[in-house]
UniProtKB/TrEMBL annotation:
Lineage, uppermost ranks: Eukaryota, Fungi, Dikarya, Ascomycota, Pezizomycotina
Residue numbers binding heme b: H394
Naturally occurring in which organism (per UniProt): Diplogelasinospora grovesii
Cross-referenced Pfam families: IDO
PANTHER family in the record: INDOLEAMINE 2,3-DIOXYGENASE
Coiled coil spans: none
InterPro entries: Indolamine_dOase (IPR000898), Trp/Indoleamine_2_3_dOase-like (IPR037217)
Protein name: Indoleamine 2,3-dioxygenase
UniProt family annotation: Belongs to the indoleamine 2,3-dioxygenase family.
Length: 494
């Protein structure tokens, strides 16, 4: 089901039972129980053939598990990789039928690859110097095995958010306590992340803690789409129940997101992020990276980024949020490739299914006076409000963790730091203002939705001012389109 073509007129095979013991399936498959988390908790222990890799990865972080400085603290990783690590591609092949194990190897080689390439930049960064150039060649003992496991797991041969850095990088300190924040530990880290109270650990673990709530998000989405696919007299009721489930799940996700402020400190982010930069659009890699023994030409890939999480893209596709036709939106589309193949297939399927059903029109162009139809609109607006809430908080993160800390112009995924996040936030605000105005006209806004629309109108102006200020300070072109005063007269049909 990973890369297998799913016909768009068939129901996407979302799992209810995530089949945690089935090693013939990719680790990442969308389910109504674990949502976008892998089907099983990530594999921690590698087979004995990989003992050298394990030993290097344990000695690698700036601060190791014992608290002693590791190889990256003194710039010793490059030499150790050359001296100690054999090319273990044949050992990878020996286990190729065990896809979750391939995923663990992909995670581990991608940690090593990023640390190896960016080690020189880290050494300059801690001296307060600009990043300068990274290493531009990945030696065979890393490039061949990472290319092999990435191909088997259907990832890019470079660190990704789900398959490597975040969602396949946790273990349970006490398995009997399950997936609760205080019980989560990182498997791999670059800087201080093996200490669960560190900002690096907090940054990663908050992502996992959020995605832990994505099962009902998937289930609610499927319920909404199913209810319209085969219409019955109960369709509207079922649709509204599905929307309510989505809303509940997003509220939990946003509630956990808010804990980032205390779990990971704004002034610590820039030091561990050196290792999660990608190759695409980064000054550290002006000529890409040569993967020795794999491909002839230089390669480039986007870096690790929450932009490759699937929860918000799911909502973008389900709600048919119109994105502006800008080069920034092209980057958003490019990000959609950097995720597990099954997530990719699911997101595409939802986009097509919502579009074919004309979901947005069905909700917004129905007669305004039927109570259940009005409820669909209110729920839809509240779900959009959670997407807004996510993106607004996210913009606040970008301001506090990045813009106020560094002048480096490009985020880890290779997007321009000042304008990219606002491109999407602006689009969500505009959509909400448009839909809110149409409810207002019909006299159906109600108090809660009225408050939401008021907030949207205030945030449109604040965002505009903030982005203009950063663009001016940094000499960046302001790309946001002007805000039409309260979007009067804008059509809401899809
Ligand atoms: C300190 C916290 C965070 C910072 C500094 C941060 C930073 C960024 C940056 C700079 C981008 C732009 C894309 C790029 O990398 O080129 C981005 C995108 C994104 N990040 Fe984060 N992030 C944070 C936390 C999170 C969390 C907890 C999630 C949860 C899943 C997340 C999900 C996303 C999403 C979905 C996008 C795409 C946004 C969109 O479509 O508008 N981020 N992040």
């Amino acid at each position: 089901m990973g890369s297998m073509a799913i016909k768009m007129d068939e129901r996407f095979p979302v799992l209810d039972d995530p089949l945690p013991h089935d090693t013939s399936l990719q680790a990442f498959m969308v389910s109504t129980t674990r949502g976008f988390l892998p089907r099983m908790d990530p594999i921690v222990t590698l087979p004995a053939e990989f003992d050298v890799l394990e030993s290097i990865l344990q000695r690698m972080p700036v601060k190791t598990l014992s608290g002693e400085p590791g190889l990256l603290a003194h710039g010793q990783l490059g030499d150790v990789v050359k001296e100690e690590l054999p090319d273990l591609t044949d050992a990878v092949d020996k286990y190729k039928d065990n896809l979750p194990l391939m995923n663990a190897l992909y995670r581990d080689y991608s940690f090593l690859a990023s640390a190896y390439l960016l080690e020189p930049c880290h050494l300059r960064f801690i001296k307060g110097e600009p990043y300068g150039l990274a290493r531009d060649t990945l030696p065979k003992n890393i490039s061949r095995p990472i290319a092999r496991c990435a191909a088997l797991c259907e990832f890019k041969p470079f660190m990704e958010y789900a398959g490597s850095y975040a969602l396949f990088n946790y273990r349970l300190a006490d398995p009997s306590l399950g997936l609760v924040y205080s019980n989560l530990r990182l498997i791999r880290a670059f800087e201080h992340g093996l200490d669960p109270s560190s900002s690096e650990a907090g940054f990663v673990l908050v992502h996992i803690d959020m995605v832990r709530n994505s099962g009902p998000l998937v289930a609610g989405t499927m319920q909404c789409l199913d209810s319209l696919t085969t219409p019955t007299p109960q369709t509207r009721t079922e649709f509204n129940t599905g929307l309510a489930t989505i809303l509940d799940s997003l509220k939990k996700v946003n509630g956990v997101m808010e804990t980032m402020w205390t779990k990971s400190k704004p002034n610590s982010y820039t030091s561990f992020r050196t290792f999660i930069f990608g190759i695409t659009s980064q000054s550290m890699f002006p000529k890409g990276v040569i993967y020795e023994g794999v491909e002839d030409g230089p390669q480039e890939f986007r870096g690790e980024s929450g932009a490759n999480d699937s929860m918000i893209p799911l909502m973008d596709n389900f709600l048919e949020i119109p994105m502006p036709n800008t080069p920034l939106t092209e980057i958003l589309k490019d990000f959609r490739q950097y995720r597990p193949s099954n997530h990719r297939g699911f997101l595409e399927w939802v986009k097509t299914r919502s579009g074919t059903l004309g979901l947005r029109s069905w909700v917004w162009n129905t007669p305004p006076n039927k109570q259940e139809a009005v409820e669909s609109k209110r729920l839809w607006l509240k779900v959009l409000n959670q997407v807004r809430d996510f993106r607004w908080r996210h913009w606040c993160f970008a301001r506090e963790y990045i813009l106020k800390q560094t002048s480096h112009p490009t985020a880890t995924g290779g997007s321009p730091i000042v304008t990219w996040l606002p491109n999407q936030l602006h689009a969500v605000l505009a959509e909400m203002a448009t839909l809110g105005s149409s409810m207002e006209k019909d006299g159906n806004l109600g108090e809660e939705c009225g408050d939401i629309v008021d907030l949207v109108r205030r945030q449109q102006k604040t965002l505009w001012k903030e982005v203009s200020k950063y663009c001016e300070e940094r000499g960046v072109e302001m790309t946001m389109t002007p805000i039409p005063e309260y979007h009067e007269g804008v059509s809401v049909s899809a």
